[in-house]
Amino acid sequence: LRVLSAQRYLNASSGTNSDSSVYETNNNASDSQAFDLNALNSVSVVSAKQNDHKLPTSVQQNVPAWLIFSMFFIAIPVSTTLLAEREHGTLSRMASMGVSRSLLLSSKLVTYMLVNLIQVVLMFSVGIWLVPKLGGDPLTLGSSFSGLLLIAVATSYAAVALALLIANIANTNEHATVMAGACNIILAAIGGVMVPQFVMPPAMQTLSQFSPHSWGLQGFLDIILRDGGFTSVLFEAGLLVGFGSALLILSALLLTHRHRF
Predict the structure, then answer these.
(1) Per-residue pLDDT for 254 more than 90?
(2) Which residue in 30, 109, 177, 215 has the fewest CB atoms around it within 10 Å?
């Protein structure tokens, strides 16, 4: 903007040395200075608005987005494992030994949540160390490790809870694989994983607020992009924990009434 103002000034002052040209040059110079000040004020306003609504870089968007996508894909191994235990009579033997359904579900939940947390470490390591070596921007994790851990655990909890529900609904491995893949892809598509929310039309941005993928992604961006703290992700973490808890209750009911565990 300063360059454009200077060009206008030079063009105005390149005329003849007559009194009229000097007068015109002075007027043009005053106009250019006013334009310069107004432009700088406009830039300041825009910059302030952008600070309030920061947009992520490609690394900041894609690393947490595809991390969440992979975390929810754990529904496939969870569901196929539970189906295999049902088909081989493992669930019946555990029920005869007095193993409660809450213990069964919690053991699956804790085990696969740990698997998901390992994925978190691996994906963030790729963003921090591998992506810069390939020419991309390095991923920064913000200043709140506790907030990052909270949203990671909450997202993992919701993902495994969805997996357990699918495992109790499906009848075969093929059924479970299709259901798990379809649910993950649809929720990811509307949740800002495949297409960032800020480029979606308004109707899709509203719809994306109902996807657990969106809750997890916004929680990660609160820490990575907006440099938030532990309290910044409490809302998204609460949504994910509430979503996961509701699915776990449904899973326990299905395990009791459908499979007589």
Answers:
(1) no
(2) 30
Judge whether 232 and 222 are in contact, CB under 8 Å: yes
- Mind listing the pLDDT tens digit for each residue in 142-182? 889 999 999 999 999 999 999 999 988 888 888 889 999 99
Residue identified by tokens 């894609």 is 62
Contact 151, 237 (CB under 8 A): yes
197-to-101, 155, 206 alpha-carbon distances in Å: 39, 18, 9
Contact in structure between 255 and 165 (CB atoms under 8 Å): no
H-assigned helices in 53-144: 58-72, 75-87, 90-96, 101-125, 131-133
Q: Is the dihedral of CA 186, 242, 237, 120 positive or negative?
A: negative
Tell me the average pLDDT across 30-56. Answer: 48
Indicate the length of the chain as a whole number: 261
Contact assessment for residue 161 and residue 245, using Cβ atoms and an 8 Å cutoff: yes
